TrEMBL record:
<keyword id="KW-0735">Signal-anchor</keyword>
<comment type="similarity">
    <text>Belongs to the glycosyltransferase 47 family.</text>
</comment>
<feature type="region of interest" description="Disordered">
    <location>
        <begin position="573"/>
        <end position="607"/>
    </location>
</feature>
<feature type="compositionally biased region" description="Polar residues">
    <location>
        <begin position="1"/>
        <end position="12"/>
    </location>
</feature>
<keyword id="KW-0812">Transmembrane</keyword>
<feature type="compositionally biased region" description="Basic and acidic residues">
    <location>
        <begin position="573"/>
        <end position="587"/>
    </location>
</feature>
<protein>
    <recommendedName>
        <fullName>Exostosin GT47 domain-containing protein</fullName>
    </recommendedName>
</protein>
<dbReference type="Pfam" id="PF03016">
    <property type="entry name" value="Exostosin_GT47"/>
</dbReference>
<feature type="compositionally biased region" description="Low complexity">
    <location>
        <begin position="588"/>
        <end position="599"/>
    </location>
</feature>
<keyword id="KW-0808">Transferase</keyword>
<feature type="domain" description="Exostosin GT47">
    <location>
        <begin position="147"/>
        <end position="485"/>
    </location>
</feature>
<feature type="transmembrane region" description="Helical">
    <location>
        <begin position="27"/>
        <end position="49"/>
    </location>
</feature>
<keyword id="KW-0472">Membrane</keyword>
<keyword id="KW-0328">Glycosyltransferase</keyword>
<feature type="region of interest" description="Disordered">
    <location>
        <begin position="1"/>
        <end position="22"/>
    </location>
</feature>
<dbReference type="InterPro" id="IPR040911">
    <property type="entry name" value="Exostosin_GT47"/>
</dbReference>
<keyword id="KW-0333">Golgi apparatus</keyword>
Amino acid sequence: MRRRSPTSQSFDDSMEKGQGKNHHPRVCLLASLSGLFWFLLLYFHFVILGGNHVHDSPNLDPLSLNKQSIITPQSNPNPLNRATIRNAKVEMDNNELVVKSKPLEKNVQPPPAVVRPVISDNSSRRDPESYSFMRALRTVENKSDLCGGRYIYVHDLPPRFNEDMLKECRTLSPWTNFCKFTANSGLGPQMENAEGVFSNTGWYATNQFAVDVIFGNRMKQYECLTNDSSLAAAIFVPFYAGFDIARYLWGYNVTTRDAASLDLVDWLQKRPEWNIMGGKDHFLVAGRITWDFRRLSDSDSDWGNKLLFLPAGRNMSMLVVESSPWNANDFGIPYPTYFHPAKDAEVFTWQDRMRKLERKWLFCFAGGPRPGNPKSIRGQIIDQCKESKACTLLKCGQSGESKCHSPSSIMKMFQSSLFCLQPQGDSYTRRSAFDAMLAGCIPVFFHPASAYTQYTWHLPKNYSAYSVFISENDVRKKNISIEEMLNQIPPEKVKELREAVISMIPRLIYADPRSKLETLKDAFDVAVDAVINRVTRLRKDIIEDRKYDNYIEELSWKYSLLDEGQTELAAHEWDPFFEKPKDRSAESDNSSAEAAKNSWKNEQGQQ
């Protein structure tokens, strides 16, 4: 019989000994595993699932939790505060979760006054103190500061945007030397008073498109300028936009026409002042009609530049002599007249003189026909005036009579008439309307965009208080008699209308930029006040998180007619004048661009 080796015997003996003992170690192992299982099960139920109640709580968005919003129990003793719940969620690994989540397990809802829903920063109301413009808004509270709420900051633009254009004034018009119109701070050459039509001082041969430089020079005399932009109620951009586009309208491609506008926008957007409101507190002036800045395409054959269609251009407020009824980023200001007084007394003397004048003509018209425009009623107006013994006519053509372009001849005719007919020009508006009102002549308008929806800052909203409206449709289709309609107005009403017109003269003229009126506000002052009011309202809307989601920009002409605090639009008697064709939505814009071209052609004939 073979003998076992010591090693093998020892191994077998150990196996036999193990099989022969009791099973206590195995039972202990099973008990430990069972205990661990129940521990994990209970932990999952009470801790993990219990913690997930945070996600089921109403109005709570776990994706918007962030460490910056955490408030510890020590800083906020209310255990049901939303911040405490956020803290429990974030500190889940710190073994504090169970304690902080217990109130939620009792289904106790936090008080509504304490819990605020988590909403995006775009829709939540920020602390007003966090806005950079709060300092500017508060300046109005300082009653000892006469400029409180009225400060203007003027960007110090490189000279290529303004002064260099004046140095190159011969390039501002392809047909004439424009340099004479930039003299005397933009007023043009002083006029003589040989016929006694004007006053002895304050009268200049001002170009109708010279507002850029006139307004800019008036701003230099503004009494509330500041070098601290944080105090500014608005920010002025002294870019001569009208002069810029005048250089390149004829014979230049879109790249050249857009160059200065794009350069300006690039310069502004790098300034810290721009970032405060994205340019919505900025404004600039262009002494031309809006259609020169609203090119619809990048075709060289299209008219103008695209300054007002640039995103930055849309944010700024642009003051033009004719605005668009369908856009919200431009505002009409008066064309310059020939009268630029340096003192209040000059205005008062002129007003008194206009009151005392004998006016032998019932109505008058200065202008030429527009045979190429089938919608124009000028031909019918000229015919009616010729046939009437109560009308005086100064007929103009592209080659024109010299008297038609003579300021003294025009003003003399307006001074001798009760009513001055103001149909559309090449576009909606005419400088002639302001020359007429300066002469104390009651304007007769035939389209609401010729004045009523244009100059809402400078003219009363109640248009029947200072003017007469005769629909051009009635003249065109019904051949209504203008003379008969004007004769139906009672003499007392005529007197009231004329007095209203004469009283408006100060706010329709631009005072001499080299001086300052003392008690009167001129067209510049009215415009600046309106811009400041607009920016102030916008800032308050931002603070109060007030949005106008239902605003319809294409009906912007209607909003300008609303009373203060009124926001709802309704059907208006002028709706037919501003409706765009549904099948060709751009037709109105195209026709306006064509009108801008015609305006330039007629300007060429006047040089």
